[in-house]
Amino acid sequence: MHDSALDAVAIVTADRPHLLDRCLTALCTQCHVYGHSPRVLVVDGSRRAAADTRSVTERARGRLRPQYVGRAEAAAVRTVLSRHGVRREVLHALLTPGSIGCGRNLALVLTVGQKVLMLDDDIVLDPCTLTTRLRASGLRFKGDCRYWTFFATRTQALAAAEPSPVDVLSSHGAYLGRAISDVAPEDSTRRDMDTHRRAHRSDVERGRRLRVSLTGLAGDSGRYCSHQALFRPRISEGPGGRTPHARTLPLTSREVCCIADAPTVSLNADCMMYCTGLANDGFLPPFVPLGRGEDAVFGAVLALCDPAAAFMHLPFGVRHDSERPSGFGSEAMASARQSRLAEVMAVLIRPGVPARGTVAADRLREIAERLMSAAAVAPMAFVNCLSEAILRIRARQIALAEEAMGSGAQARLWRSALSEYRTTLKSHSAQAGFCLPLEFRQSPTIEAGFRHLQSFVGQFGSACASWPDVLKAAENHSRALRPGTAAG
User: Computed over its alpha carbons, how large is the radius of gyration of the chain?
Assistant: First the structure.
């Protein structure tokens, strides 16, 4: 029988001890009810509340015995790895707490060789499942196996899904690392997307394995752009989604129930890591150590490094009760107003261009070469190529959205929203700094910001080239990396 136990749970947090306390409490309940005792890591990037975060972690030790990984512990980890041949500048770039990407990288290093569930601190492991009503009223997007139902408030979204006694840890562990052909009979595990069904035989022959398991959610969708739904062609729209109020919600509210109705294998590498299982006993790439959207870049790089990787969507959700407001407010149409680092990195890694290496580490080094080559061109050429690529992507998204528009009241509303988006994009993209990611807007000038960006791209490329060495050293010296022993 396949071992369904997860080895570890890693919670990535920063300056939110009250949310961490709630997350740990729910995790403790899950472990108590279902008899689990995983290794628990709290990876802390706090700049202001490190002492309180450590205190919350220590109070939970009687229940879960979580290990706290703050700045001192991370420094000790870097010291151990540097003693075994990994360059210090690489370790500093990837494993210094602060950004969510660095927190995730530390979690990968400290759980190398294990199956791990990665949690954000504002997630509550209070499982819920899709109801018939939600399925009937939800939107389906092409290439997405989940049903999306939008709500005006957090309270409505959290109350909409059906509470369910799901063993979250075992549900993830039951699939991670397994071959697609072995996960379940055809009638109980759906394989998403027509392309996947056609490729099933070759998938089995190539040994596709489930590297990532993804959970649905109720609450904050984590959407960056309010108008993202415009660029995801709809498959179906239930009758409950046709009221005038409901038609506007996909463009105005973050609040959703977004859950698959069956265990579903997908080749879509789009990841959101709020509650995600990772088969860390095989090669996984690093996360971008700056900004948000690092999980989407991770998924794209994983698909390039491991062409046999598959992704499992589990048929339940967890509560995502964040501190963000339900509405987008002044942040509406963010992608029409600005760029961010995650999409720049997605452009530069060229996800549509497969790497030629025969093993994952070599493929990552090829991707690293792409990044370092981009960092080596003349600054004006770098800016021009990047700007053209980002604007080309925006134009392509708009064109595809126009093609997908149907007829009826919903289509008229969305066509109007698309027109507004296009007007906003035209206005903002004419500004010199539109394609400078928001993470680099603090530079004295736009030119300085682009130079800083180009330097960062080169440094991350160099770090990616050394990442296989980081993982090898971590695997060989995993005992020495345990928090509390790494300094020894």
Answer: 22
Taking the CB of residue 49, how many other CB atoms lie within 10 A of it? 18
- What sign does the CA torsion over 423, 138, 295, 73 have? positive
- Distance (Å, rounded) from C-alpha 162 to C-alpha 198? 34
Maximum Cα interatomic distance, the chain, rounded to a whole number of Å: 68
Whole-model pTM? 0.93
Closest CA to 275 of 26, 62, 99, 15: 26
Residue 224 token pair: 């960056």
Q: CA torsion 387→390→394→397, rounded to 10°?
A: 150
* Dihedral angle of Cα 212, 334, 287, 9, to the nearest 10 degrees: -50
Q: What is the pLDDT of residues 316-341, one digit of tens each?
A: 999 999 999 999 988 899 999 999 99
Q: How large is the average pLDDT for residues 257-274?
A: 93
Cα(206)–Cα(225) distance, rounded to whole angstroms?
Answer: 37
Tokens found for residue 323: 């501190």
Decide: 80 and 112 in contact? Cβ < 8 Å: no
As a whole number of angstroms, the distance between CA 219 and CA 416 comes to: 27
Task: Report d(CA 337, CA 437) in Å as an integer.
Answer: 11
